[in-house]
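Structure record:
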Amino acid sequence: MKVKKRTVWFLTLFSLVAVIGVYYAVDGNRTGNMLAIFTSDTLDETDILGVTTDVTKTVNSESDLFQEMRLELSNKRSQLREQLTLKTASSEYTAEQKSAAFDEMEQLINRESSEATLEMLVKSFGYDDALVRIEDEKVAVTVMSDENSTKLADEIIHLIKTEVDENVKVTVDIKPFY
């Protein structure tokens, strides 16, 4: 009997989601104080090789904003992924509906992978931080830079269009450092 490739992918993805779900259900509810090891006493007693104490780096609030935006987007997508997983596992839906949900999960995974790749490419241009969001045929890019010019935006747009698709609409938002 020949097993369809889509069925194998579906079962693999479903089992992976099930294992991750069980892991978080069992280990996700830890109530211990995991930050207790980072008290000032333990940090004073610890020698970190290769790190000097006179080097400091300022943390930018914009980078924190990017992290918050990433976290919010990740939470929304996790909820969507969970709904789709439940839909594919439920007996209430037809095979076509389950297949559509599986296809949507696959698109979500591809979108997340593309966003991560594009963020790395944009950062390789010398930006401290970048945030890329893909929705349908639109790509929104937000970068941190002291220089706010159309030349920078054009470079980013060209990079995105060469990596994704020439017909995609790209918007670039350049945030200055504060």
Remarks:
- The chain has a mean pLDDT of 77.
- Residues 32 and 56 are 31 Å apart (CA to CA).
- The longest strand covers residues 138-144.
